[in-house]
Structures are given as C-alpha cells and as structure tokens.
Amino acid sequence: MRDITETIKRIGLEEQFGKLTQRLPIGLFHFVRRGDGQSDILYLSEGASRVSGIPRERQIANPLAFHDLVLEEDRPRYFESYLKSAEHQVPWDCEFRIRTGDGIEKWVRINASTEISNGEMHWYGYISDISIRKRQEMEIEELAYYDPLTKLPNRRMFLNRMSEVLAHCHGSGEHASMLFIDLDNFKMLNDTQGHDMGDLLLVQVADRLRRCVAPRDLVARIGGDEFVVVLDEAEKDSALATVKAISTGNRILTELSRSFDISGRHHVASASIGVVVFDGARQRADEIMKRADLAMYQAKAAGRNGLALFDAANMDRQSQRFELLADLRNAFVRHQLELHYQPQVDFTGRVMAAEGLIRWNHPTRGQVRPDQFIALAEQYGLNDDLTRFVFDAGFGALAEWSARPELSHLRLSLNVSVQSFSNDDFLPMVRALIQQHGIDPRMLTFELTEHVMAKDHQHVRRRMAEIKELGIRLSLDDFGTGYSSLAYLKQLPFDEVKIDGGFVADIENSESDRALVKTILAIARTLGLKSVAEHVENVRQEAFLRAFGCDYLQGHLYSRALPPLEFEKLFQPAAIDREVVDEMKRKLA
User: Fold this and answer.
1) CA 373 remoteness from chain centre
2) Three-state SS for 214?
C-alpha cells in the first residue's frame, strides 16, 4: 500500500489548470535549454496551438518546429533576442511574424522570464497573437505618415527622411538632391472633369514617379498636385549629384508627358520641376524645400513642362516675389486694394466714361505698380479674387453714379483678363453682381485684349455673345499690338476699339505710328465701332486724334486715375469750367 493523496491533488490541480488555460487567447510555455545545447518544452498549453497552428503534441516532440514558422526577414531579430536573453539572463521579449501551419501570416509576441536551475536555462512565459494590434498600429502609422490617396509618404515622413539624409550628408561631406514636382494646369482638370478624375490622375502620376527612381529613393506627396523626390544615394562631388538629379528630372518629365488613360479618356499632362543639390551644412529640410519650390516656379515662369536648377543668385529676387505674393493675399483682407477711375472725354472735353484701374497702397512699400502684382496674381491663383474685387468695387461705384444726376450718364470700362474670360464661373459672377448692385449693364464696357481671341474661336464667340445678351458693351483693348486677322475681328460683336498707348505716344515723331493710328481710326469707322485713344499726354496728340475722328480720349492730359471721391469732384461746377480746363492744357503744353 502507498499514500497517493498528493498525487490525486496534483492531478486535480493539473486538470483545473488545464481547464483554466484551455480558453486563454495566449499560449503558456515552459521551455528549457540544457547544458549540452539541447532544448525541450516541458509545458505547453492548448492556446499555443491556436497561435502557431501546430498540434501541441507535435510541438512538444519537436521544439524547433516553431522556429521554422518565423518569416525569413524576421529571423535575425528573433534569434538575436533569444540569444541575448540566454547569454545575459534577461527576459525574452520579441515581436515578429510567423506563417502558421495553415499558411496564415500572423504577428506574434513572445514574452518570458528566465531562471537558471542546475546549470540549465529555463523560460517561463507566453506567446500571443498580436495581429490585430499590429494592423491597427500600421493603419495609424499609414494615416500619420502616408497619403491615403496615392499611398506615398506624406509631408511628415518626407521631413523625417530629409532630416536623416541631411545628417548623413553633414557627417560624410557628401551631396544629395531633391526634386520638387508640380503638375501643370491640374486645377483645370479638376474644374472641368471633376475631382474624381483629378484623383485618378494623381494615383497614376504617383505610380510613374516610383518607376522613375531607385527603390531606396523617396517619393512623397506633400500637397494637392505637389510631389517631391529625394535621391538617397549621395555623391562626393556636387557636380555629379547635379547631373544625377537633372537626369532623373528629365526622365520624370518624359514619363509624365506620355498620355494618361483616365477612365477611358486620354489626358496629356506635364509638370514643372525644381532641383536643388545640398550637402547638409547649415541647412534645414524646410529651407531646402523652399529652395526647390523657388526653382520649380522658375521652371513654370519659363513656360512650364521643364525643370530649373536652384540658383542662389536668384534667391533674393524670388524671395521678394513670394513676400509680395503673401502681402497681396493679406491685402484683400486688410482692404489695401482700391479701384481708381480715369476719365474718358469726348471731342468737347466732357467726361463720358471712366476706366476702372486697380491700385494697391501697401503700408510699407507705398504704391505698388499694377504690373508688379497683377501678373503675380494670375501666376499664383489669385486672379479670380482680383477680378471679383475689381468688379464688385466697379459695379458698386456705377450704382452710386446712376443715383446722381451729374454722374448718371457715365459708362464704366473694366479690363477682363484671359483667365477670367475663359473661366466657367465668370458669367455667373457677373450676373450675380449686376443683380446685387442693381445696375444697368448697358452702362458697362468690358475691355478684352487680342490675346483672348487667340483661344478657341468657337468658345470666344459663344462667350462674347453671352456677354452681349446681358447688354454689356465690348471693347477691343490695345488694338494693333496683336495678330488677329481683320476678317476674324469683323465677325465679333465689338462696340469699340481702344488704340494702344504706345502708338499714341509716338505719333508726334513717328510717321509709321501716325499712319497706323489713322488706319485704326479708319477701320473703326468702317466697321461702325467707336474709338478710344489712351495715354494722351499733350494737346498736340489730342489735336491729331481729334482731326482724324477719334471719339474718346483718355490720359494724363485730362486726369490721372483718381480715387472715387476725387473722381467725383471732377463733376462739381468749378471742376468742369472749360476756361479752367483750357488753361490747364496751355500750361501742360
């Protein structure tokens, strides 16, 4: 006989422990490595089989079976953590991927404490499936560091990577490069075809950019249609780095110039690329990106579909342009812009109309010339804001004039840019402002240059007809400076032609300009159009223009462009006394 009470208790405890651990989502284990290097699994719960996909008995019989499940790329990290735990008697904690016996890839974690007993190393711990947590972490990381549309790294990851590249260049003295890529006319695709089509193009552009660079190079999307490429392989010589960057840039331009198939529609795109080479010395990532951005805008200014290398000599000039651009954005909010009015007089000297001319009174720069900021607005996407301001201010002034008997006869001329004329939102804006201010559209004149007519002729005719239906007059501005055929002009519904001031300025000294002005005036009469001459500066020019039948005159001989209140003073009785006007003319002459 023998007492088996303790055995029964132990069996009971083991049965109870087995039931407790059977439903655990983790697998418990007791693993030992003996002095001869052999390993055994002394205990393994059922949960381990659910994690690994290997039956419990088979795993216990072959302790190395689990090692074989570890993915090849994760094995160095897995075995390194195992050996470190064994050699230094520290806990074994490692996250890695396995491919289970069922062929499923999982993320798992091993966490075990160590104990040395009788010269043997024991691990007591657990293995758990962390696939859900890892997937969530990767999704969070993707949201934080990747663009959800193109799956490219975003601005945050780009800046992190740039910091690493800068640190390497600074330490090694090598040179790397960055390319700033901006798609040309992307907004037009979005506006005409819809944002879904624009998104499809961006995805294809991202794919082509990846193919243009090496796997280790970084391609990131940092804005709407803006991408950057960082060439990771640095060069000892800045010249070599420059050649490599330019070669990559040209390869990108070629690749992006190929037709895109967007939902069955063929689309031809292009890009402007700015290139900057850097060595990491006293340079920050945002500063380098700014330089590449400046170079990109140089490429756009040169005609788009090209690349430009950052030139430090242009830094100050470009920086001033960007400062002016930032100030212009603020000018709308801070009410620094104002519409001035320059009178147009008839042959008797009576003011019959005015041209609205925008002026910018900068708080520190003073008066900024229109030619300095209008082109800037058109180039950097502020043209619509500028047009709306001019029309809103002009229509408001016309409404006020119509309510005053001494001003109610005045017409108002406003310039319309090529961009505004082609914009689908232009006419709805005009209609809305006419209704808002309650003006008579017949008192409006839109001045168009011949550049407008260089576009699609059918679109031009249709748009001009729509404007005329509103009752608005049309004037051909700077007539004689373009290349439109007279036969084509004859087909368009213009009401007047405006002689370019350059011809007027030289009629005293140039026989060819005198002949040209006379011809223009004769053409206007033949076509039944009114004629306006601008930049009239003296009485000799005035006399010539009146002698050959010019209907209206405009220039400093009569008045500069005036702020609204000063312009209205012209119509006070003292201001329009003919003797005073004649005396002013004699003095100017």
Assistant:
1) 20
2) coil
Q: Helix, strand, or coil here: 540?
A: helix
- With contact defined as beta carbons under 8 Å apart, do 73 and 96 qualify? no
What is the C-alpha separation between 361 and 373, in angstroms, rounded?
Answer: 12
Q: What is the mean pLDDT of residues 443-455?
A: 82
Residues 6+ away with beta carbon under 8 Å from 77: 94, 96
Q: Which amino acid is at 361?
A: N
Transcribe 44-111 into DSSP letters: E-HHHHHHH-S-HHHHHH-GGGTGGGB-GGGHHHHHHHHHHHHHHT--EEEEEEEE-TTS-EEEEEEE
Residue at 118: amino acid letter: N
Q: Which two tokens stand for residue 51?
A: 């994690």
Are the C-beta atoms of residues 51 and 26 closer than 8 Å to each other? Answer: yes
* Strand intervals (E) in 329-482: 337-345, 351-362, 366-368, 411-415, 444-449, 473-479
Q: SS3 sequence, 501-523?
A: HHHHHCCCCCHHHHHHHHHHHHH
What is the pLDDT averaged over residues 296-303?
A: 84
C-alpha to C-alpha distance for 16 and 20, rounded to whole angstroms: 6
> What pLDDT is stored for residue 232 in this prediction?
79
Q: Which of 108, 90, 111 is nearest to 99 (CA)?
A: 108
Pairwise CA distance, residues 479 & 11, whole Å: 108
- Exposed, middle or buried: residue 103 (CB in 10 Å: 0-12, 13-18, 19+)? exposed
pTM confidence score: 0.53
562 within 8 A of 340, measured Cβ to Cβ: yes
Torsion region of 471: left, alpha or beta (phi above 0 gives left; psi -120 to 50 gives alpha): left
Instruction: Return all residues near 413 (Cβ < 8 A) that are at least 6 apart.
Output: 344, 353, 354, 355, 356, 445, 446, 447, 475
pLDDT in tens, 472-503: 999 998 876 655 556 667 788 999 999 988 88
Calpha distance 117→437 (Å, rounded): 94
d(CA 3, CA 7): 9
* Contact residues for 474 (Cβ-Cβ < 8 A; gap 6+): 445, 446, 448, 464, 467, 468, 492, 493, 494, 495, 496
Residue with tokens 């012209």: 570
pLDDT at position 486 is 67
